[in-house]
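Hi,

I'm pasting everything inline rather than attaching a file, because the server keeps stripping attachments. The sequence lines come first, and each chain or strand is labelled.
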Amino acid sequence: MKNTYFTPGPAELYPTVERHVKTALDEQVGSISHRSAQFRKIYQHADEQLRTLLSIPKTHAILFTGSATEVWERVLMNCVEHESFHLVNGAFSRKFYDFSVELGKFAQLYEKPVGEGFDYADVMEHGLPEYAELICLTANETATGAQMRPVDMHKLKRSHRSKLFCVDMVSSAPYPELDFELIDSAFFSVQKAFGLPAGLGVWIVNEKCLDKAERLRRAECTIGTYHSLPSLWKNYKNFETPETPNVWAIYLLGKVAEDFNRLGIETIRKETDAKAKLLYNFLEKDARFEPAVKNPTHRSATVVVANVKGSATDCVNRLKEAGMIIGSGYGNSKEKQIRIANFPAVSLQQVEKLIGLLKKT
Amino acid sequence: MKNTYFTPGPAELYPTVERHVKTALDEQVGSISHRSAQFRKIYQHADEQLRTLLSIPKTHAILFTGSATEVWERVLMNCVEHESFHLVNGAFSRKFYDFSVELGKFAQLYEKPVGEGFDYADVMEHGLPEYAELICLTANETATGAQMRPVDMHKLKRSHRSKLFCVDMVSSAPYPELDFELIDSAFFSVQKAFGLPAGLGVWIVNEKCLDKAERLRRAECTIGTYHSLPSLWKNYKNFETPETPNVWAIYLLGKVAEDFNRLGIETIRKETDAKAKLLYNFLEKDARFEPAVKNPTHRSATVVVANVKGSATDCVNRLKEAGMIIGSGYGNSKEKQIRIANFPAVSLQQVEKLIGLLKKT
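And the predicted assembly:
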């Protein structure tokens, strides 16, 4: 019997993926040239479906990398000459900051304790550094289950229009309703809420970021080679990529985004909310658990993290015996927390079944 | 009916791939954590099978990137402080050189006309620049079908032991019999002779390269972040990767490398030679074709390129009608040349069938 994966990525495959993989085999998608019309059609299809799903305007390109981790590096190399600014409240937002330090940028941060989130008001009170060129936000901190709401990100950008804003949507896309008239760049990977095998990063990025990268190149900054923003963008204009990309993953992403559009993004968001509500209600009522994020406004809808009284590892293992795979707490929280991914691939019924098992553990 | 792909990558999938993909779906390989024992076993299996196949000693790590194109960038960033040297005889060896220029290194080259190859003697006559830190060789120039023989690469290294040697094996691995006691680094991508869907680069690299990268880091050179050599190597020690990698591709690579080992590398090399001989014999005899590489010593066994009298595009199209997909000439040679990949995924019978069709076109 197959397991059900509630892990925050790699995660349960979206139910249609198996069918799409078999079609890809039948259509020999693994053998076609990445310089053929057939490939350009695959890229264009993924582009169109993602645009519809996430309301991405024409000002933004949709580019492909090997991972979302790669985008951390590429966006910093291409959009920051001197200074970046990061909101940090967990291991992944911290890594985004660390990358900037490693690249020799002057990286600044506003850090909050694990389990806390950011609002417009408190970020404004802290203030944004005057010379920061790129503001790096994390829609969903996968390590802690804390979200930053789009409304707060949008207000922050409206107060700082001259700065570029970049949003890490790794473990939340397509859930957050970002306004791409305001957000200059965002990115995610496909093995989270899109329910695909890992190996592809999706980088949504606008012309202002491209202009910045071109300015940096003229100033003889190192912006990279094949995956510099100008190189990716130039190829994108023909729905191509600089290198031979993960063609299968682009094909599958287009198909799953199409499936999502058929359902409708509003339905996906409502179902995500309904499942999240069930999970948080349970965690609040059951004495052995509590939501790790105290402030309900900051609780992620897509990665639900709970403090566990007793051993979290025991809890994870007992569920595993029943074929339900949940995530353990991240890093030091391994023994104290569990993480439950609430992605579109898991149904309301599966969430109810999980809660039923958690009650009995 | 399915096509047979003789394209030099993406190429025909190896016949066992479909079965392995279905097993991957059944075993939920797309959902497992990249920090789990199950993933480490997958990585270790691929590592062991590749070591056996290519005779890779313990001094070398086997690392995974998004593409071989990525390795061009990473090896230059991590192993060159000031100066690299490149043997250039086509579009791909030229791109390796271009990357070094783009990264702000002092890149030197010895260039030969398209269709020519390099020997030990003529490279020695040209000479290697005294201060070049990394010597970049291309085992098989995919654009032109010219090979450099391992024996010449090995002699060159023996004459320049203090320099790091890196070999691009993109469209030839596992065919060339490299001696990794001499070759410091080599790399390939999986969509060529391994017959897998694209989306994974394989980087074989030794401790001398790691030492160099660590020295560069101490000298405050930018060596990158998650895919710097020290970061990849540190994760490799646990059979892990810094980011969520293309888990499926690593799984499939291990399985196909195991299939190759079951056949035996000697058998694969002999079959490759036998098929190449058939193709070159035909090209030499048929008045409408000729091998693009004049010197038989420099003719690639894995990517056979031919000059065509008349329109190469017509030739490609006529074969396409019969379900045989061959590559057109690269870049400016599109109208004048054809390229035929001779990878393990195509059998002697399929090559004979292709030749039969070429005779009739």
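The first helix of chain B runs from residue 17 to 26.

If the labels don't parse on your end, tell me and I'll reformat.
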